[in-house]
Target: NmrA-like domain-containing protein
Amino acid sequence: MSRKVCITAVEGQTGFLIAELLLTDDKFKKQIDSLTGLTMDPTSAKAKELQQLGAHIVPHKPGREREVVATLKKTGCDTICLIPPAHKDKFDIASELTVAAKKAGVNNVLLISAAGCDYAERDRQPRLREFIDLETLVMGAKGDPNVPLGNSPCVIRAGFYAENLLLYTEQVRNEGILPLPIGENHKFAPIALGDISLVAAFVLTGKGPHGFDDRHRGQMMVLTGPMLCSGTELATAASKALGQNMEFENITPREAKRVLKSQTDLDDSEKEFILDYYSLVREGKTNYISTTAFHDVTGQHPTEPDEFFRNYAGELRPKKRLRSS
Model:
């Protein structure tokens, strides 16, 4: 059974890591015939690296649905991993890709959505809530007997990426603080991006009589990290991993916005998404973990917070002595 995979937005970290895993891990790469990386920036370093690993890199020019349909048909893909790009027009671009995949006759679709989107309010967390609309588009194809796209769908609602905590490396290194606008008491369960990529790889390569493996087909997989953490507990995990005292500082949303603006080159839409998620934490809507799907799909245990910080110790370990508590 052939499996020709197309992954969108491979210039971004999520798309890149999923594609890299499929191309380099023996248990996955032998399950696919080809991998196409769709990108709005074919000259990006990530696109070039994937090309060297064996991916077909195809420019994606959003805005004209007919051309996007033609692009997808040209790839010959039977499976698409739809990742909304880090772009101000994220929703429009992802919506266009969903419709184009339907018209191009793609059978299997995996959407990378966002955990918490169902708790988000349109007026308070619009960047989170728009993922509900994308899910509706993808799942709506299930009710159309005239298109193959709805035949084998899967949605991964990815929790807050633990890698977003690395945006505060400057404060961690120089001041020994982890500044987050999440309040003092509510918790969330950040998940390592590598864990999301692993589940996606299993889904994209799993095979059954209708496309995806029947254990994955039609599933709504909510993935969070394995531990609910307050800001103080995250700082404790970081302290344990780095061997240095680390403190949590509850900052205001305004200050968080300023920090993101001054310290990152993220697209504005991604900054807004992160701030929306922090808002959800402050409202107490992230006080849960969801690891069942991860265990069922991979047979493994997701990355614990202290293990995550250990993995990035080289980036986070302070360059000067930290203040004592």
Residues 320-325 have pLDDT under 50 and may be disordered.
